[in-house]
């Protein structure tokens, strides 16, 4: 009954969410452990939860709040952006998570028919956000084969040769699905610096923002900093700011607030009309982020970033467990992992056409679920998420994954 013809092409042509497919797989594979979804195992800070518990009877909690976010929270976030991210000229809008922030930004900046740029392997939800908002010209660029850094030379060529130039360039730092960190020299160049450095190709080499972003043509760089605190081995996250740059952040992973749905946008204060247009989009999607969730976000911020880094530091052990689990694929098969909660691994060539088959086989035969690389535009790879399991469970899951991959390499997908 019914006809697809009655549904929007926009929706029909949007990918099926990989996590929805995998949740079905998890339900169907008895006792499988998930290393699929990008989650953390901790809850929000206890102190913050206790404070929020007391708030439920407060009438303002049940009302709508300001579209752009609670003033106290925005004030605290502006301070955080100054002190931690060195963003001094950005305004804040609080959203129902970073995914909604990204949709807001796409709707504010792009029109159907515009072209946009991403780098493979890309974050599947951002790709879908483009598709579902009618942006069909998604140009997917290459990453450095070893480090998975976005290819700046390719970007420069695309920006200068595509007419009209792409409207938006999207990067995730550190990356999902790879965990790759785009290092400071490649990213941390302010707008003015990038313009002045542009004449100096020597210094400029490999700097993503040094490519000639055609600012006059209205190209935007949108950086997703969801994993800003998830940095390992002494690396430090940094942000860039400018009148063609938007930064997106999330409370989900850092403060264990996935289900509370709070994220935020830092957009350039000086760009005329930005906040007015952004507000129209916000008013028609969530109106405002959940008020009680915003209170939890505020109290979590009061607990401070040290709380987060303290949680994150233990994930290094999980990363080691997963690295060992991936060893049957060979040392050269594994990439990324400097940050975020992911490792990225290449499967043997004969499985490059059907990484979903490998994922299904691992789930049913070996009881562990991971994400196929084809969901991120790179068939023949796997994304392994290690943030959602405490160390003991990670050891169990890692053991299953290692056994499965040993078998895959030696005997193939024996049922
Ligand atoms: C890069 C990236 N951006 C955004 C999100 C979504 O975050 P939120 O829960 O804040 O919507 C995720 C979640 O996995 C992510 O990995």
From TrEMBL:
Protein name: Aminotransferase class I/classII large domain-containing protein
CDD domains xref list: AAT_like (cd00609)
Named cofactor requirement(s): pyridoxal 5'-phosphate
Family (UniProt): Belongs to the class-I pyridoxal-phosphate-dependent aminotransferase family.
InterPro entries assigned: Aminotransferase_I/II_large, AspAT/PAT-like, NHTrfase_class1_PyrdxlP-BS, PyrdxlP-dep_Trfase, PyrdxlP-dep_Trfase_major
UniProt cross-references to PANTHER family, sorted A to Z: AMINOTRANSFERASE CLASS I_CLASSII DOMAIN-CONTAINING PROTEIN (PTHR46383:SF5), ASPARTATE AMINOTRANSFERASE (PTHR46383)
Pfam families, per the entry: Aminotran_1_2 (PF00155)
Lineage, uppermost ranks: Eukaryota, Viridiplantae, Streptophyta, Embryophyta, Tracheophyta
GO biological process: amino acid metabolic process
Keyword Endoplasmic reticulum: no
Record keywords: Aminotransferase, Pyridoxal phosphate, Transferase
Listed GO MF terms: pyridoxal phosphate binding; transaminase activity
Keyword flag Metal-binding: no
PROSITE patterns per UniProt: AA_TRANSFER_CLASS_1
Domain Aminotransferase class I/classII large, chain residue ranges per copy: 33-187, 218-396
